[in-house]
């Protein structure tokens, strides 16, 4: 006890009060905890693991009460930070409880971004050993029930984002497109929700015709084009998230380029076709250097072109690569 006090610089009486207290981490002040972390090996690691485990255990219990069983092995092996995984499990709790108010919209809206989105993907995943839930069917059903109610009472930026995020995840695992590309409304909420559905369906179903249909919709609908151009830079944090869906006039797509290169290598041919025909040309209009990665983009497209079984996708990759070589 006196050794800990000496090394940490804390009063021995402070250390004494906490010494035999199992809940000492809840009682210690922030400054005292920092002193312990910086002087006693293992304190920082224990503080982190204890906090994560306690939140995880509470969520596992609450989700079990809602009919969902968490796969603890998948939680520990998830390819994203544990904090994002726990945030995703808490999102599942909101959805299962049917919280359709502003709180759930605000919470789900915070999953707009690469790592939070990856956490939601493993939450909804049906792949054995990958999904955070042993059976996500009830979550999917609750999500389908919740989606129409998210924006019913309040038309807000958060509800627009939340609806997009929710429908995107559902369409990835159901592999069906529930809504056509001609929604009755012409507002941002309908258009942005439709983008979420289309992106999820492309990833889940590998439907090249859907990619073409979406491209034609953008060509004749300015609001679809504006939302498409806004999505990648804000998702990757090249630009701050703006409630009016605008981008700065000068923008370097450094993070967007990194994400697009990853997706070219990782996603199916239909999604590749969407990137080549729809987003990459839009991104080049905003940043002709494509984050300084034009050469890398050419190489990535040429590699995928060789692998493409469908001629129109292969030809689209080759045409864009030739155009980019001219720009470089």
Task: Give the SSE map.
Layout (H helix, E strand, L loop, with lengths): L1 H7 L3 H8 L4 H4 L2 H10 L3 H23 L6 H6 L4 H15 L5 H8 L4 H11 L12 H14 L6 H18 L13 H18 L2 H13 L1 H14 L18 H13 L2 H18 L7 H14 L3 H17 L1
Helix pairs in contact: 5-7, 7-9, 8-11, 9-11, 10-11, 11-12, 12-14, 13-14, 13-16, 15-17, 16-18, 17-18
Q: Describe it for me?
A:
With 328 residues, the chain is an all-alpha fold. 70% of the residues lie in helices and 0% in strands. The chain is built from 18 helices and no strands. The radius of gyration is 24 Å and the shape is globular. The mean pLDDT is 91.
Keywords:
328 residues, 0% strand
Task: Summarize this entry quickly.
The protein is mainly α and 328 residues long. It has helices spanning 2-8, 12-19, 24-27, 30-39, 43-65, 72-77, 82-96, 102-109, 114-124, 137-150, 157-174, 188-205, 208-220, 222-235, 254-266, 269-286, 294-307, 311-327.
């Amino acid at each position: 006890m006196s050794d800990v006090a000496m090394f940490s610089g804390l009063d021995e009486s402070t250390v004494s009060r906490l010494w035999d207290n199992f809940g000492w981490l809840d009682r210690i002040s922030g400054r005292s905890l920092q002193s312990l972390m910086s002087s006693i090996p293992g304190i920082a690691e224990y503080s982190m693991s204890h906090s994560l485990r306690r939140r995880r255990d509470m969520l596992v219990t609450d989700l079990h009460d809602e009919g969902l069983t968490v796969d603890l092995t998948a939680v520990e092996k998830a390819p994203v930070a544990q904090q994002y995984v726990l945030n995703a499990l808490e999102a599942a709790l909101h959805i299962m409880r049917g919280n359709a108010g502003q709180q759930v919209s605000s919470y789900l809206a915070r999953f707009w971004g690469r790592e939070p989105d990856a956490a939601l993907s493993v939450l909804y995943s049906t792949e054995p050993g990958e999904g955070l839930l042993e059976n996500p069917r009830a979550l999917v059903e609750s999500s389908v029930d919740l989606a129409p109610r998210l924006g019913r009472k309040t038309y807000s930026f958060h509800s627009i984002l939340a609806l997009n995020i929710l429908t995107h995840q559902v369409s990835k695992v159901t592999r069906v497109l529930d809504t056509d590309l001609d929604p009755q409304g012409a507002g941002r909420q309908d258009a942005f929700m439709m983008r979420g559905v289309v992106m999820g369906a492309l990833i889940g179903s590998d439907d090249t015709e859907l990619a073409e249909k979406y491209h034609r919709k953008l060509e004749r609908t300015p609001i679809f084009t504006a939302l498409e151009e806004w999505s990648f830079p804000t998702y990757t944090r090249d630009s701050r998230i703006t409630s009016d869906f605008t981008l700065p006039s000068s923008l370097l797509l450094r993070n967007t380029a990194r994400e697009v290169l990853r997706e070219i290598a990782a996603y199916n041919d239909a999604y590749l076709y969407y990137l080549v025909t729809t987003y990459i040309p839009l991104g080049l209009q905003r940043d002709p250097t494509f984050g300084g990665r034009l050469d890398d983009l050419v190489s990535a497209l040429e590699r995928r072109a060789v692998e493409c079984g469908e001629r129109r996708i292969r030809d689209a990759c080759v045409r864009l690569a030739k155009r980019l070589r001219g720009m470089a």
